[in-house]
Amino acid sequence: MDVQLKRGILDICVLTALLKEPSYGYKIIKDIQPYMSISESTLYPILRRLEESNAVLVNTQEHNGRLRKYYSITETGRNRITAFLEEWKSMMDIYAFIEGEIKGND
Amino acid sequence: MDVQLKRGILDICVLTALLKEPSYGYKIIKDIQPYMSISESTLYPILRRLEESNAVLVNTQEHNGRLRKYYSITETGRNRITAFLEEWKSMMDIYAFIEGEIKGND
DNA sequence: ACGATATACTATGTGTTGTATAGTATGCAC
DNA sequence: GTGCATACTATACAACACATAGTATATCGT
Fold first, then answer.
1. CB contact, 8 Å: B72 with chain A?
2. N-term to C-term CA, chain A
3. Which of A62, A102, B74, B88 to pair with A27, CA 20 to 30 A apart?
4. Contact between A6 and B8 (Cβ < 8 Å)
5. Closest Cα partner for B10 from B1, B20, B19?
6. Which positions in chain A touch B13 (Cβ < 8 Å)?
7. With 0-12 CB in 10 A as exposed, 13-18 as middle and 19+ as buried, what is A61?
8. Chain A contacts of B91, Cβ < 8 Å?
């Protein structure tokens, strides 16, 4: 999928992956992969940004001798998703414009 | 509208604005404004990129003593739009995923 | 006459962000 | 004991929207 198209939707996808239950980096990647390719070097910076903006909370726990960071979505995070669904309406208007113009000029 | 959401769609909007007839910077901005805010410092670099990638052709003409650059869409440009419409299907899948998850967790 | 506004384009610098690449470290299957 | 899955960190880069500023002509209100 086009890199530029991803930009507006990737962090929302990550937040969505946390809706059902807290999760951690590796699992989030596996959960999102069916919908969109995402690499570690993309996800971890996103998680740090989400934490800085209070959209997620972090809880570090030991797992098999290693530290694993569990991320849980906050109320702020949920609001980010609903705000996105609102924004999406503008996107649909633009899409309708593009589709209409190209069909009118075939 | 969110900056990151715009990124994947702005150049396609510009190409769409050229479908009916060739146009120039100032007019393109006015044509797109009803759908999405776009400034000169965003549009002109886009036009230069579209030219470099052969999606548009440039024809400089004198108009009221000033040079005005008329941009017309090429076959490559039209293909860019149809490719975008294809990509959009992936976007709709992701949107359905997000919407489904948040409705399931109200 | 003169300033404000619309028109039309160029140039520079900045901040956000996706991604490649590389590194560290544990547990398990063969 | 070698590969593979797991789990996270750090650095560097390139694309791109946008702010800001500059140049320059035409038109309109007063």
1. no
2. 26
3. B88
4. yes
5. B1
6. 94, 97-98
7. exposed
8. 1, 5, 9
Query: In terms of Cα–Cα distance, which of B86, B52, B51 is closest to B72?
Result: B51
Give pTM, 2 decimals. Answer: 0.87
Q: Which nucleotide is nearest to A11 (CA to C1')?
A: C17
**Three-state DSSP string of B6-73:** HCCCHHHHHHHHCCCCCECHHHHHHHHCCCCCCCHHHHHHHHHHHHHCCCEEEEEEEECCEEEEEEEE
B89 contact A CB<8A: no
Q: What is the average per-residue pLDDT within A72-76?
A: 96
3-state SS track over B70-96: EEEECHHHHHHHHHHHHHHHHHHHHHH
What chain B holds in terms of domains, given with CATH numbers, is: 3-104 (1.10.10.10)
Q: Please choose, from the candidates A106, A94, A88, A7, the residue with its C-alpha nearest in 3D space to the C-alpha of residue B32.
A: A94
Measured over the CA atoms of residue B87, residue B90, residue B96 and residue B97, the dihedral's sign is: negative
Query: CA B89 to CA B94: how far, in whole Å?
Result: 9
Q: What are the backbone dihedrals phi and psi of residue B28, each rounded to the nearest 5 degrees, phi first?
A: -60, -45
Residue A102 and residue B81: Cβ atoms within 8 Å? Answer: yes
- Give the pLDDT confidence of A26-71 residue by residue, as tens digits: 999 999 998 899 999 999 999 999 999 999 999 998 887 778 899 9
Q: How many residues does chain A have?
A: 106
How distant, in Å, are the alpha carbons of A32, B40, B60, B68, B77 from that of B22? 41, 18, 12, 12, 13
